[in-house]
Specification:
Layout (H helix, E strand, L loop, with lengths): L3 E4 L4 E4 L6 E3 L3 H7 L4 H10 L7 H14 L2
Antiparallel strand pairs: 1-2, 2-3
Length: 71
């Protein structure tokens, strides 16, 4: 299942093929919690790339990386 990060109505949402879009709150802890099935890989990627996960650009990088792990 790929996850999509996109903006809609003043926020950023994550959406899977199976569920309702989830609004993403700023911060590393929030995105790591939402992508919990790959928590260790996501945490390492965020640290290695010095991402703060407070911008849409950072979220997209993390989601693209997450999706690459599922390919």
């Amino acid at each position: 299942n790929n996850i999509f990060a996109g903006t809609r109505y003043f926020g950023v949402y994550l959406s899977t093929n199976k569920g309702t879009p989830i609004r993403l709150e700023k911060g590393k802890e929030n995105i790591i919690k939402l992508l919990a099935d790959k928590q260790s890989q996501i945490s390492k990627y965020i640290a290695d790339n010095k991402l703060k996960c407070k911008s849409e650009d950072d979220w997209k990088l993390v989601v693209d990386y997450y999706n690459s792990l599922n390919d």
